[in-house]
Amino acid sequence: MSKTPTRNQVLSFSLLAASELFLDGVKVGRNGKPAVSAKEEIPGYIEYSVSLTPEQLQQGMHSLVLKLSSYHGNNQIKNPFYDLSITEPYSLYVASNTGIILPLLLAGALLLVVLLFSGLTLFYQRHTHWVLFLILCLVASCLLVVEAWRGLFGYLYPFHLIRLYLVAGLTCLFSVLLPVYFLAYFRFQRLMLITGILALLTVTMTFISPYFDHKSEMMFGVALVASLAISIIAYKRQKSASKRGLVVVICSLGLFLIPAFHFAETGFGLSVCFLLFSILLQLLQQFVHDRQKAALATQLENQLLRRSLQPHFLMNSLSLVGELLHQSPRQAEEFIQALGREFRMLNEYASHTQIALTQELELCKNYLEIMSARLQKKCTLQIKGDPSAISIPPAILLTVLENAFSHNKYRQETLFELHIHRSMESVGIVMKLPVVSPRAHTGTGTGNHYIHQSLQEVFDGRASYVTEQVGDFWHARFQLPLISGTDFINRDEFYIESVQKQTKKTHEITDR
């Protein structure tokens, strides 16, 4: 001792053994009962401390002897002796509580996240990546509690191996689920096959090192590297939110590699909690965006249905039916069938945020058939280009046609043209509408407003719509990103499922 302390000191040690403590030949403490056989030995606690007075720790040399036996230990643990120190009681109290409080606070926060996402999953929607995130938070919370258990309550040293196995098992489960979460979030194919490969690689890490801390460290490192690779691939494929996911994984990997943080004590907890809480923020932002998107979709659906049931259009159609019934019952029947098809398609498409361009063209041709019957002049749509594998918001081209009939007096046979131009990243659609005896505009602009809102909802500002008059034609130009209907369904899986349910319900009501 360099000098005599002024107050009592705490001699603490952490080891896997039963022990007796002798200071200068005097027995000052016992932890369990060391013996010469397993039958006679009484196991001690892994953490043990004894208070020593200043008289026992006078300045000068002292002899400290530990009498140990560890017959209830296991050869799988390569390092049975962990710590020996002499400190002030307050310093020991602060150090022990610091190592316990932070993990428990983080574990409690993760449990609250588990409760939140359990409620959202049960009562709102069931995304696969939501369920995986919920399980990740639960596993991480349990792992933090298990890590803090040693300093919180202590245990007899034979149970240390059980705790190490529990830590390794939870770390392995977390390390497998983490990259699987990113696979599910970015909707990669062959999910089960990749999950199996990741699980095999993670388990292999447990055989490389004999030390349990190193096993956990390598498993978590593999999980972060795999997650980084998945995020890079998703970013190159321009997956939604892939840039934010990539930044989160890179920051977590950097935090994990900081030498100042010992993995088993602080590195894992800090890395995991930064990762999970960053993902939580991202998922909550997505949740709010989805709710806003659903509200906008409902608003657009109501707008479309109201526009399709305009009193002026219905009155003119019913008047025409009355006239045709006396003049040509066959034409009346054909007109009623076309009118019924129009309302049926509008009712079906109104609950979708996106439909195939071929379906939209079918809607437009049917509308022109109705207008041909009303005007007693043939109105046709000529299509130039390939409309396949293109998706657009419902009824935007139909709205353009309706505006054309509202603003012009077509008295002769009329030909409308639709030109489709494709490039590597986008598709251009131009509808050419003849300008004939234009009427004064008396509308409120709801048609154009509907078109702009629909494009914004589906394409998030990546689509444009402009109109201009070129000679005797009015050009309506759409520039859309080249996204197929399949890609859209994969991106908004739950929303499409809800739309299908609503459509089925609507069909059932119509049938009744």
Classify the oligomer: single chain
Largest sheet: 5 strands, mixed
Q: In terms of per-residue confidence, which ranges show pLDDT below 50 for 5 or more consecutive residues?
A: 484-512
Give me the side-by-side strand order of the main sheet: 8-10-11-13-12
Shape: rod-shaped
Instruction: Tell me the domain tally.
Output: 3
Cα distance spanning the termini:
94 Å
Q: Radius of gyration, rounded?
A: 36 Å
Protein name: Histidine kinase
GO molecular function: kinase activity
Organism: Undibacterium hunanense
Keywords: Kinase, Membrane, Transferase, Transmembrane, Transmembrane helix
Report what the structure shows:
This protein is α+β, with helices and mostly antiparallel strands and 512 residues long. It has three domains: 9-87, no CATH class; 91-290; 344-511, Histidine kinase-like ATPase, C-terminal domain (Heat Shock Protein 90). Helices cover 58% and strands 16% of the residues. The chain has 14 helices and 13 strands. A five-stranded mixed beta sheet has the order 8-10-11-13-12, covered by helices on one side. Strand 10 and strand 11 (426-434) form a beta hairpin. Helix 3 (160-185) runs parallel beside helix 5 (212-236), helix 5 runs antiparallel to helix 6 and helix 8 (311-327) runs antiparallel to helix 9 (329-349). The longest helix is centred in the middle third of the chain and has 46 residues, at 263-308. It is rod-shaped and about 125 Å long. The chain starts with 8 loop residues before the first strand and ends with a helix. The chain crosses the membrane at residues 100-123, 130-149, 161-184, 191-212, 218-235, 244-261, 267-284. It comes from Undibacterium hunanense.
